[in-house]
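SEQUENCE-TO-STRUCTURE ENTRY
===========================

Backbone structure tokens: a row of integers, each naming the local backbone shape at its residue.

Task: work out the structure tokens from the sequence, keeping to the layout shown below.
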Amino acid sequence: MLNERSERAEGLTHGAWFIVVAGALTCIGLMIVASGSASLQRPLLGSEFLKTTFGRQCVFVAAGTGVMMLTAKAVGPWLLASRDRLRAAAWIGVVAAVVSLVSVKIFGDVTRGSQRWLKFSLGGFDIGFQPSELAKPVLIGFLALFLTRDGVDARSLRKTFIPVLGMIFCGGLLIGLEDLGTAALTCLVACLMVWIGGCSYRHLIALGVVSVLGLAALIWFEPYRMDRLWAHQNLWNDPQGKGYQGVQSLLTLGSGGWWGRGLGAGVQKYGYLPESRTDFVFAVLCEELGFVGGAVVVALFIAFIWLGVGAMRTARTGVETLLAFGLTALIGFQALINIAVVTVWIPTTGIPLPFISAGGSNYLVFSAMVGMLAAIGTRSAMNEVAVPNEISEES
């Protein structure tokens, strides 16, 4: 009895740590968003609070916290459900993602040359929804179920590789038509999941080649994407034009020094650095909190990845193992890509920094993902009995 209680406490602690780390990142993000909102949308607190970026982000964080807790409670019983129920839930998610991705090409708003958002108003509160954010965890969950179905041989060309290739290609194409950066990220994580699932290296290389060719085609046929590549390669040749965003990002990063100018004391957010509260929020963070502040954020993401690896290694079933890996890899790679963009290692992608960038769609989806990971971490450490969705041989 004592050992059972000890295991249960340890499990709850492991699951709770996902929420603690995500909460710490969220608090840092709210501070930076508040700093930017106070300077550009005075007054910060007042009758127009909900119309400020900070006010809207507070609403999203409150909603996201509810989603996180609800998901953490609900996913555990779902993981104990039959595979038929899991498959039904996965198909519902796939249909919802596909419908929303198609809808954005028909009804979506065009912003800065790209069509990514479905916008509507609810009680005078304008809401924007980015369907590609929903598609990421849906594809991960669907792949986790497909690769761990009964009697599966991940090395089979006909039964596994070709269907998986079709799923990734169709998913990448649909997402890529809306958001290339998200498509590249999703395809990368999907390919790694196939590898973890036991795919042969030959098939994995073929999968990677097809993904790269598909992404290259999506870049070639969109002029604004080619412009981003050109701007990255010729950053200093046109610092006031196409290279402006990259140059300003580097100036913002460097001006903070070791300890930063102080929270709220940054100057680049005054219209000098585009997207200072979303895609390039990490640069503003480093300007105001310095290299030390940036290092703390990186350390928190590393801690989150470490927790994800622990949940994956102790997962009770094949589905949970792949799901934990996919969700952790998605959050980790998205943070890495965002920071690489801000430091001008790679071209601008439009991918936000998880939990820190302002925005509703990405925060709500990431909150749900954290809830799933917390549920998996708790279940694995509680040493529950393996359930029917574990990989089994054909009888």
User: Anything to note?
Assistant: The chain has one domain: 2-381. The CA atoms of residues 42 and 118 lie 28 Å apart. The longest helix spans residues 2-40.
